[in-house]
Design a protein that fits this description.
This protein is mostly beta strands. About 5% of the residues lie in helices and about 35% in strands. The protein binds zinc ion.
């Protein structure tokens, strides 16, 4: 089985963003072993928000608030019909308004969206074989928190994957991983704003720790 990190691009015909307008939040998850919090707070009903359409058509898969995702009803129907797992909730979202950030003909009304939460708890990163730069050392073998400064390829620990098609791994809650089956579903929908990077090739390196960037020279001063 191959796995991919799901990332949103700031481009594509289906670039759509969602901002929550309702502010009921519940406590974050806690590690059953060390008790530390995992990830952020949870979004609670009412599920209300606004859509920002940057592309031409509404996307079928959007980044949601509080670590969740928004998927269209038609995407959810196929996700279930094909027996995929790893999403829970499926709460209808009330779209209060739509902001369109492009010129040209107006698209029709938005599709119906559902708020879903990716699974967390079984699959864990192999912290030895994953390339993660951090100043901390791992103190809990369950949540495996270290706080990444840079990532240069990830590997799952053999035997921890339980068949989930969408999940956040123990070790890096902030990374959203999907299966090959989920990738094939995504490819059939409006998802030109989504990219899927093979897990072992996933790079996140904002400070250039693994891949130093050429020095940016200041433009010469005019004075
Ligand atoms: Zn822990």
């Amino acid at each position: 089985m191959r796995f991919f990190v799901l990332e949103k691009l700031r481009e594509g015909h289906h670039d759509t963003e969602f901002n929550r307008l309702s502010s009921n939040l519940g406590p974050a998850m806690r590690c059953p072993r060390c008790g530390d919090t995992i990830g952020g707070l949870n979004w609670l009903p009412p599920y209300q928000g606004e859509l920002e359409l940057h592309g031409k058509d509404f996307g079928d898969l959007l980044k949601g608030p509080c670590g969740g995702l928004l998927i269209t009803e038609r995407f959810a129907k196929d996700f279930k019909a094909e027996g995929l797992t790893g999403l829970s909730g499926f709460h209808p979202v009330e779209v209060m308004r739509v902001r369109r950030n492009h010129r040209g003909p107006k698209s029709g009304p938005p599709p119906s969206y559902l708020f879903v939460t990716p699974s967390y708890g079984h699959p864990a990163l192999d912290m030895e074989r994953s390339r993660i730069r951090s100043k901390k050392i791992m103190t809990c073998t369950w949540c495996r928190y270290i706080g990444a400064d840079a990532i240069d390829g990830l590997t799952l620990e053999a035997g921890t994957w339980n068949g989930e098609d969408v999940f956040r791994p123990r070790g890096l809650w902030g990374v959203l991983i999907v299966s090959e089956r989920f990738m094939r579903l995504v490819e059939r929908y409006f998802t030109s704003h989504i990219t899927l990077v093979p897990l072992e090739k996933y790079v996140w390196d904002p400070l250039g720790l693994y891949h130093p960037r050429p020095l940016q020279l200041e433009p010469p001063s005019k004075s």
